[in-house]
Design goal:
Four Helix Bundle (Hemerythrin (Met), subunit A); globular; 5 helices; mainly alpha
């Protein structure tokens, strides 16, 4: 298996999660009410799975290894675009968290939440398509089979450590709040 296999599987799960955003925006519109639990779940998914886990492997492993290669100007440009798009997604998710917090404080941010959920639902499929069709497959040609195998192993190790990082952070947060 090539290293892009796990990245492609992750894309499919991200797309599936995003498919729920439209239904949630319809509920918010109909009820003029935000479900903070849905927002927290969506944010946790995007921050932990889409960003920290998926983008983490791209930026911390794939891109790190690609910059050591003689890659085409087009692939350099796409890689730079992808990093900027990751930053954009992080910023948009941060705005969603802020809108939810203000909603909980009594401000009616329903339209802002709808807009941000819609923006994420529009953004990610375009981003994913760029990675799937214009970047991942062509970039595998820069690596030998041995390099690809090493990268795949590193991806699996990265995933294995993520669960410990996530829940270690939760315990640290609770500990800090209880002091």
């Amino acid at each position: 298996m090539k290293p892009i296999g796990p990245l492609m599987r992750e894309h499919r799960l991200i797309e599936k999660m995003l498919s729920f955003f439209e239904g949630e925006t319809k509920k918010i519109t109909e009820q003029n009410k935000v479900d903070p639990l849905f927002i927290d779940t969506a944010v946790d998914f995007i921050r932990t799975y889409a960003d920290r886990t998926h983008h983490g492997k791209e930026e911390g492993i794939l891109f790190r290894d690609l910059i050591k290669k003689q890659i085409s100007r087009e692939h350099i440009r796409i890689m730079e675009d992808l990093v900027e798009e990751h930053k954009y997604a992080r910023k948009t998710v941060g705005m969603l968290v802020d809108a939810k917090e203000r909603y909980l404080e009594g401000e009616n941010t329903s339209q802002e939440v709808i807009s941000l959920l819609g923006e994420l639902a529009r953004f990610y499929p375009i981003h994913i398509e760029k990675e799937d069709k214009r970047f991942f497959y062509p970039c595998m040609e820069y690596f030998t089979k041995e390099e690809q195998d090493r990268m795949l192993k590193e991806f699996y190790e990265f995933d294995r450590n993520m669960i410990h990082e996530k829940y270690g952070n939760i315990v640290d947060r609770i500990e800090a709040q209880s002091e």
